[in-house]
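I have been asked to look over a protein record a colleague put together. The record follows directly below this note.
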Amino acid sequence: MLLDIKQLPPVRIASFVKRILIMMLNCDSSIALDFCAILTWIFKRYRDTFIGLIEQENGFGIYNPSVQQPDHSGAINSCLWELTLLQLHHSPQIRKWVDSIKILLTKH
């Protein structure tokens, strides 16, 4: 899906990423590392979408993952707080990945 479409709406991309990050907080390390590979590609391809989300200290919106339409989830208006929790992950590889993603998304 993400590989075939040239340009997706930023709100859908942000919602998809938020869902994956939340799953990473609750899954096994090996699965979380697989998600890291997917998210790295997404963060590189849609970097402009996420620069604002990583720089916000506190998001000005509330993310609601239970809505049916990702356009109405509020993902684009909330920050990526999941990355802060993943920095405390027991796997050093995931902690290292979070550091590299934060550098990627804050580098202008």
Observations:
- The CA atoms of residues 3 and 36 lie 16 Å apart.
- The chain has one domain: 10-106.
